[in-house]
Amino acid sequence: MRKSYPHQLLKMWGMGMLRFKQIESVFFPGESFTPTRVYSPIRHIKGSSLNGTLSPAVVRALARGGITTVDQLLVAERKVLMNMKGLGALKLREIESVFFPGQQYMVPRGRRPAPTLPDNTCNLLTNI
After folding, report:
1. Cβ pair 23, 9 in contact under 8 A
2. Residue 115: pLDDT band by 50, 70, 90 thresholds?
3. The predicted structure's pLDDT at residue 40
4. How many whole angstroms separate alpha carbon 64 and alpha carbon 81?
5. Is the dihedral of CA 90, 96, 102, 104 positive or negative?
6. Distance, CA of 92 to CA of 105 (rounded, Å)
7. Helices 56-64 and 89-99, packing angle to 10 deg
């Protein structure tokens, strides 16, 4: 208990400030710790060495795509990463900021057809 006070104790599942203060008053009388921010516990993806390096959502998306180690991530092409379910441009930017600083993959944008607008006589304009 002493080793985990205060930071690890606050990260325990189900530990809120009320329960933390109750435990603190019983086991650590006279001490008062007030965190600047209480973080929710981080869920780790079992078997992934990327835990803690990237956000849990990114690690989860990579694990679904079969990438669980740093070596696998470093050799993966960014185009392949973008095709993984749940891994979009923002998550790719997080990966790049950690593992590829200064590099940025140009995310291809889909071409949408030009909108058709009605003119004054309610005819659709196709050539704008």
Report:
1. yes
2. low
3. 54
4. 11
5. negative
6. 8
7. 100
Q: What is the DSSP string of 89-116?
A: HHHHHHHHHHHSTT-------PPPPPPP
69-79 residue pLDDT tens: 889 998 988 88
The helix (run of H) or strand (run of E) holding residue 117 is strand 117-118
Tokens (6 digits) for 9: 């104790």
Rounded Cα distance between 118 and 112, Å, is: 18
- On the question of pLDDT at 117 being above 60, the answer is no
Estimate to the nearest angstrom the gap between the alpha carbon of 98 and the chain centroid.
12
- Token digits of residue 5: 């006070």
How far is residue 85's CA from residue 16's CA, in Å, rounded to a whole number?
33
29-56 per-position pLDDT tens digit: 888 887 766 555 556 777 787 877 888 8
Determine whether 57 is exposed, middle or buried from the number of CB atoms within 10 Å of its CB (0-12, 13-18, 19+).
middle
Q: Are 72 and 63 in contact (CB under 8 A)?
A: no
